[in-house]
Amino acid sequence: MTEIEYKKSFELFLKRTDEKGVILKFIRSRHFLNRNIEFLDIGSGKGSLALSISPHVRNTTIIEPNSEFVRKSIPRKMITVINKKWEHTKLTHNFDFILMAYVFTYFKPKDRSSLIAKAYKHLKPQGRLLILSIDSQKGSWRGIHSLFYKLMSLRHRSSDDALTSLLSGYNPYHTKIITTVSAYNVDEMLRILWFDFGEYPMQFKKYNEELVGFLKRHRDRRGKITLKMVHNAFIITKK
């Protein structure tokens, strides 16, 4: 899969999911935001969540290693940008609200515990760390991924399971969030899935019939396909 192919697929996913709006609603409902809050987003990507949160807090800092995202998508006048990996970042102060949305999976397994501990260290007293991940078992989005790995006889280890185990020592508040990914038809959903499955192009083509069969079970009368994503939300409060 080329970088251009991945980008097109992922951008289509972003257009067809309600994820951003649902996550923002969840953040507001948990009273994370007010004008006294110092906010840190670790692994912000293109910064869509951070940019939506920024007007509602005192100041915003993001940490994002992708130089292209930082250069093209994130206005530095509005927020402080640190173009580094979290493991290479040195901070001089602490924050009231730290967000780690879907970045745990990119941490090396040997570093995961220390990188979570580092985030906790940089919370102010009573500050809160919100960690989001995709549930390893539930939801039709996870279901088609599990089917694909099963067809390839590939044992897929979800980072969500490791995260759940690692966080047990922090006594987090845990809840689930439901979002959807919708496509106008089966072909469009397959184009969306390409950003996750493009690593296995031959198998993606080989098992097309099985994947289409799965998607058709989630098709409405108009042919629209909707897959459900189940997210785990962990909230850790600094004592």
Helix content: 40-55%
DSSP, total strands: 7
Q: Given the structure, what is the number of helices?
A: 10
How would a crystallographer describe the biggest sheet? 7 strands, mixed
Order of helices and strands: HHEHEHEEHEHHEHHHE
Basic shape: globular
**Terminus-to-terminus distance:** 45 Å
The spatial strand order of the largest sheet comes to 3-2-1-4-5-7-6
Enumerate the spans where pLDDT stays under 50 for 5 or more consecutive residues: none
Class from helix and strand fractions: alpha/beta
> Roughly what fraction of the amino acids lie in strands?
15-25%
Radius of gyration: 19 Å
- Mean pLDDT equals 94
